[in-house]
Specification:
Blueprint (H helix, E strand, L loop, with lengths): L2 E6 L7 H15 L3 E5 L19 H12 L2 E5 L2 E2 L2 E2 L1 H11 L10 E7 L7 H13 L3 E9 L15 H17 L3
Parallel strand pairs: 1-2, 1-3, 3-6, 6-7
Antiparallel strand pairs: 4-5
Helix pairs in contact: 2-3
The chain binds flavin mononucleotide.
Length: 180
């Protein structure tokens, strides 16, 4: 059985990216994976600074080990000022410094929800670039939601048709390209 993690690069209350990460958890479960939403509110990491590496927060290692054990990791994150959101980058930076090979096994999937109609596609490109540079395998499809308002129903289902189709294709790719 595939073991999947889904995460959000926004911990804002009522975050759209969190909605997308939860929706993808459901899609992966439907396809037979055991999927867990990892809430980064429970993994509070200070802004990375090499001085802190001598005494790293235990949450950094916990996340690194979760990533290392996963077959699939889906991350939805907003774009801030045309680039990656700080929570995404800080989390990745802390995990790489645990030196667990946390990005060597899973296939990664990406998504972005934006308040605007461009959906955060520029941030998605930066996220893909960062992951590729640390040798992570990233699925070709991504999920783009914008504007996010009205894209999800009250139960958290993605109802915007184009984004919904992309989510379906990405979940298929993540299952197909991963090993159980
Ligand atoms: C500092 C900051 C910068 C932002 N820059 C962008 C941007 O470049 N492009 C964009 O589409 N949205 C941008 N936004 C708006 C986000 O798309 C919007 O806040 C989004 O809903 C955040 O995701 P969330 O609902 O998961 O928290 C920005 C928001 C903030 C707070």
């Amino acid at each position: 059985m595939r073991h999947a993690l889904t995460l959000s690069g926004s911990i804002r209350q009522d975050s759209y990216n969190e909605k997308l990460a939860l929706y993808m958890r459901g899609l992966l479960e439907e396809k037979g994976a055991e999927a867990v939403y990892v809430d980064l509110r429970h993994y509070v990491l200070p802004v990375f600074n090499e001085d802190l590496e001598h005494n790293p927060p235990t949450e950094a290692m916990e996340l690194a080990l979760k990533f290392k054990a996963a077959d699939i990791v889906f991350i939805a994150s907003p774009e801030y000022n045309g680039g990656v959101a700080p929570l995404f980058k800080n989390t990745i930076d802390w995990i790489t410094r645990q030196r667990q090979g946390a990005f060597n096994k899973a296939i990664f999937g990406l998504g972005a929800c934006s308040s605007g109609k461009l959906s955060g596609y520029q941030g998605l490109s930066h996220m893909r670039d960062t992951l590729t540079k640390i040798n992570a395998l990233v699925a070709p499809m991504d999920v783009r939601v914008g504007p996010s308002e009205g894209a999800f129903d009250a139960a958290g289902n993605l109802i915007e048709e184009v984004a919904r189709g992309r989510a379906e294709t990405l979940s298929e790719q993540l299952m197909r390209f991963s090993k159980g």
